[in-house]
Amino acid sequence: MQLYGTKSSPFVRKVRVIVEELGLGKQVAFIHAHPFTSNQLLEVNPLGKIPALKISDGAVLINSPLICEYLISLVPESTLLPKVSKDRFGVLTLQAMSDGLLDIAVALTLEKRRPAILISEDHVQRHTRNILNTIQWLEQLPQSSCLCPAPEEEINLGSLSLACALLYLDFRHQEIQWRKSAPGLKRWLQEISNRKSIKETAYSD
Ligand SMILES: N[C@@H](CCC(=O)N[C@@H](CS)C(=O)NCC(=O)O)C(=O)O
After folding, report:
1. Which range marks the domain in which residue 144 is found?
2. 201 in a structural domain
3. pLDDT in tens, 5-23
4. Residue 130 beta carbon below 6 angstroms from any ligand 1 atom
5. What is the pLDDT of residues 161-181, one digit of tens each?
6. What is the pTM of this model?
7. Is residue 51 lining ligand 1, measured as CB closer than 6 Å?
8. Domain edge (last residue) among 73, 96, 129
């Protein structure tokens, strides 16, 4: 299989983390493809978005939740995405919330990269507010949710997605200082960051 992406994309990181957690590293080759410049990417994904995963029969999967679900299906004994409905939708909700946080954080990255005169202070403030509101929502999740401190067996697609999202805020938006209002998440991230899959997929430009 071939994974198209960059090492700075949080959605690609989520897929790389899942590959690592599932022990599929040897079966997935990483193809560097920047979404704004790669013709190779456009040949496999007309949307021009990363990640994209070309699988062995030549088909291409797009969108990180779909790619992760496919990879997890290759390892039937994996517990990263529970089969029982209640747990499954809790995990998928956490993934969706983390991905939503990332949609905003990536939009904020792009906004800040515009020439100074074109940057909309309105957009910057709205994105920042929505990021901090989401951090509060996450901080207030009950301990019994899929977020609770993670012994080996409780790691799942949702909590790994959240780790990638919080670490992206550290990578691109340190000035937001999300930890100030979220001591629980701060502790949780410190713990989950010790995992090999997180250490081996650090963001880089
Ligand atoms: N929902 C998608 C989001 C993917 C996404 O937005 N990727 C960004 C890079 S971080 C991208 O390819 N942007 C290029 C563009 O929007 O033109 C997923 O989960 O895979």
Report:
1. 85-195
2. no
3. 999 999 999 999 999 999 9
4. no
5. 999 999 999 999 999 999 999
6. 0.95
7. yes
8. 73
